[in-house]
Amino acid sequence: MHFITEYCKNEHALTRVDARVKLFVFFVILVMVLSYRGFAFPLIVSLLCLFLDIRLRIPFRAIVLRYSEPFFIAVVVLLLKFIFSGKDTLFSMQCMGLNLVGHKDGLIEGLEIGCRIIGAVSVVSVLGFITPFNEIMAGLSWFRVPRGFVEIMTFAYRSLFVLFEDAMVIYTAQKNRLGYSSIKRGLNSFGVLAGSLTLKAFESSQNTTVAMVQRGYDGTMPMLDHRPFKYSEVAVSCLFIMAAGLLWKI
Fold it and tell me: Is the pTM of this model over 0.85?
């Protein structure tokens, strides 16, 4: 099973950069993308992130799966803004008894929101591709992110693998018994699968809590020790942020 941070094992110059530096740079770029009013900057960031994905030799299937859901959300937002928002009418038509009206200003606003969605997801995806999960959590802890949030994220990430293995066992058993031979049986099988995973998630959380308490867990999660900052990494990061800031201002 390949999660978003499992591809960071590929050798690349960015994978060796300090996680704290990457977190700071990507957070600044993310803020720029979300606050930009227009199309240019988010599109440039998206293309740059796609180029980095290709350079990292991320499988094409993984890239498609990673971007398919946010792309669908962006398309839905675009259609909603285009049809139901705005004042400058482009066209009006009747469809199945409904009066559909397209608005120019709604289309522009929907495109801006869609570009920001794709750009933000691209930034987060690249960060996951080039940084192991434990280093991300350690970096967030160094930035004084609330300890409870970091611990919940760590436990949730660990539980994903356990639940995925349980889901595959149940799904394989259902499929071997023709549980997905029709739409009706498939929906019933999916309901059983979802209910079983919910029960297993509660059971796994209780077992994990008991096991950690018995091993002396006092609410403090040990994190990785950070090495000193490299001046070259900090300097290059500052230059990159300055260049991105100038592009954001244009």
Answer: no
